[in-house]
Structures are given as C-alpha cells and as structure tokens.
Amino acid sequence: MSGYINQGDYQNWIKSRTLRESDLKLYDERASGWKLLPLVHFVVVIKRGEEEELANLIDSLEAQFYRKWRLTIIAAFPAPVVIKGEEVVWVAVRPDADFLEEVNREIRSVSADWVMLALPDVQFEPTYLFSCVSYINIRTDWCLIYTDEDCLAADGVRHNPKFKPDINIDLLRSLSYIGFCLVKRDAVLATEGYSYLSLAGSYDMALKVLDRFGEGAIGHIPDLLYHTPVGGPLSVPEEEQAALSAHLARNHLNATIGPGYAPGTYHIRYQHERTPLVSIIIPTKDRLDLIQPCIDSLLTTTAYPRYEVIVVDNRSTDPAVLDYYEKLKALYPEKIRLLPYRHPFNYSAVNNVAAKEAKGEYLLLLITTRRFSIRIGSIR
Fold first, then answer.
1. Is there a contact between 127 and 195 (Cβ–Cβ < 8 Å)?
2. What CATH number is associated with residue 59?
3. Which H or E run includes 184?
4. Of 12, 57, 170, 341, which is most buried, counting CB atoms within 10 Å of its CB?
5. 224 with 292, same domain?
6. Are the C-beta atoms of 142 and 220 separated by less than 8 Å?
7. Same structural domain for residues 203 and 306?
8. Other beta carbons within 10 Å of 141
C-alpha cells in the first residue's frame, strides 16, 4: 500500500504531475464528450473547533474543475459566517440530535446522483471530481469509487502516499483500505444508509455495496486525489469490526475476527463445517537438505487433519534421498505417496501429472525451498 518511499523521490514525483496550462485544455476536450453530468453531494458533520479544517475542505471543493457539487454541513451550532451561494448548506441541529440519522435523512432528501460522507479534515485535489466523473461516464456499472491518497502536513508538505489495490475481498476483510469514497445515492438508499460517522462508515458502506452489488460495482481510480492530516482521519476499530462482523453474517460465513499481524489489520478465522482432503504436491530431485525439512515441517507442525503429500520425484539418484523416501513410505503409508516422473523437468507438467493422481478436493503446490504448516481455518 504505502511501505517505505523516499521523501525526496516522492516530492519529485509530485512535481512531475503538477498541472500545466496545456493540461487544462485537455480536460476541457475530454469533458466535452461526456454524456453523464452527475450532481455530487458531500455531507460533513462537524464539531466546534473544526471550523478551520472545514474551511480548507470548502476551499478544495471550490477549486474543483468539475463544478456540479453540493456540500451539506451538519452541526450542533449555527454557521459562524453567512453562507452565500447554493453550493454549501449549513444545517444546525440540536446538540442531542442523532447525527447519523441527520446524515441519512439529508442523503434521502437531496436530488444528487452520487454522495460522500466525509470528515472536515479531508482535502481534495482539483481533479478529484473530474477524474471520478470521467470514470462514471466509462464505467456505468460502478456504484462506489475510491482513489489513492496521501497525508498533508501542517506546513503543506505531502507524504506517506497510499497506493491502493483494486477491490480485493480477502484484503478488504483484513484491512480497511478504501478510505473516503463516492457512492451512488441509489446504492446508499438500497443498503439502508450509513451506519457510522467515522471513517468506519466508508468501510461499512464498501462492504454493503460489495454484498449487494458484487465486486464489479466497486471501482478504484489509481491516482492520488485527496489528502488527510497527519495522524488522521481516525477510524474506530470497534466500528470497523462491527461492520466486518455484519458483512460476514450477511454472507452466512461462520468466522471469528481477531487482530492481524500488523497494526490496524484483522485476521479472519473461518469455522468450516467440514474438512475437505487437501493434496499437497511437491516436485523434487535429490537435495535431501531441501526435501527433508520441507516434508518434516509439514508432518510435525500441520494442525489441519486431512491432507496427503504427493512427492513427485524427477529421477533422483542420491542414496540418502532414496533412503529417506523408503522411511517416509514405511512411517506414513496413508499420508505420503511417491510419484516418479522420468521426463525432463517441467514444473507445469510435473504438477499436472500429480494433479491427475491426487485424491484431494483442493491442491496445494509447494516447492522444497520453503517450510510449511497448514492450520485449521487457513483453507477456505
């Protein structure tokens, strides 16, 4: 996603992508061919003390190349200044109001085509909406759009870019990587609106859109199009886990959610109703120092109960290896099979031959340079 990126290299990369006067003409030419000109509506809930962040957000929206946008600000206090124009609306509510319900009520009432639940400390690149609408005109099947992002320090320096992958269900179940996203208003209504005001709301919405409309409805624009402050915006882990739990329930998946290996990630342990046989295929030739640790690690550390090991031997001649094979066959006659392959080595051909002999419902292709164990719940 981000990893380590040299800050100097990143600043040079940013400079290389700075818009020029000639770029603006190209944007105009591209927009002239659009058939869809959707209205995009942003909704933000703010608290006292966030007025400066909100002003920066509004500035970034007013700088958009694509002008068909609206912003609704929901707060428990009146607007600090007179708001002019039709783009921005301030909705003052009671301090004890249900702000989540206010957000969903606003989305139900507006006539927009696309909406976003944002936080006041996000800032958009001038091309954000232009890029989104460009894809909307191409990918009419998309219901949710997310983009790459980075952090914006108080001194205006950008860093820590997050280059995100396209939609990946298993990764999404492990990491809330979507961030802020545009969602078709109809899709929001079809999924019964937002459930959380924090960034977990976007995560939950992505999971609900995924469940309702499928992977093809979620689109990724591989471009850095918005900025968040250092250390934020923060999500709420408990809300993320609740969203993830609801997603698993909607898909009738019996699973538990635990902490992942990295901060901010989750580990899903699927509780399967059955344990299908897995055929582990290991091509090899000689090299006892490789094949023995590989197989021994499987036999001694694997918790999964139903597996077979098919060792595909490509004309080994080492006496130590051949002796090891005999010991395996004697000790594990039901677990390990030795399959001779007497042709010149070809990795694909070797595995194809073994696959025909395999009894398992699933195949696991291994190489002898690694040590492995299979744990219960690791096979879906």
1. no
2. 3.90.550.10
3. strand 181-184
4. 57
5. no
6. no
7. no
8. 11
Integer Cα distance of 326 and 52 in angstroms: 75
Domain limits at 66? 7-268
User: H or E element: which one contains 89?
Assistant: strand 88-92
Q: Report how far residue 109's alpha carbon sits from residue 183's, in angstroms, rounded to the nearest whole number.
A: 16
Domain boundary among 268, 299, 332: 268
- Predicted pLDDT of residue 378: 46
Give the global pTM: 0.81
Rounded distance between C-alpha atoms, residue 70 and residue 293, angstroms: 63
Structural domain ending residue among the three candidates 211, 238, 268: 268
For 363, other C-beta atoms within 10 Å of its C-beta total 14
Residues 148 and 191 in one domain: yes
Cβ-contact 192, 255 below 8 angstroms: no
Residues 260 and 329 in one domain: no
- What DSSP assignment string belongs to 192-211? TS-S-SSTHHHHHHHHHHHH
Q: Which residues of 163-193 are buried (b: 16+ CB within 10 A; e: fewer)?
A: ebeebeeeebbbbbbbbbbbbbbebbeebeb
Residue from 104, 146, 155, 124 nearest 62 by CA: 124
Q: pLDDT tens digits, residue range 103-158?
A: 999 999 999 999 999 999 999 999 999 999 999 999 999 999 999 999 999 888 99
pLDDT band at 372 (very low <50, low <70, confident <90, very high): low
What tokens appear for 162 in the block? 């997050």
**Would you report the helix, strand and coil content of the chain in percent, each value rounded to 5?**
35, 25, 40
Q: Contact, 222 vs 163, CB < 8 A? A: yes
44 and 192 both lie in a single domain = yes
The structure tokens listed for 81 are 């200044």
Same-domain check for residues 59 and 137: yes
Q: Does residue 184 sit in the same domain as residue 41?
A: yes
> How far apart are alpha carbons 251 and 241 in whole angstroms?
15
The structure tokens 């990369």 sit at 13
Residue pair 276/304 in contact by the 8 Å Cβ criterion: no
Residue 137, in any domain of the structure? yes
- Asked if 307 and 374 touch (Cβ cutoff 8 Å), the reply is yes
- Give the number of domains in the chain: 2
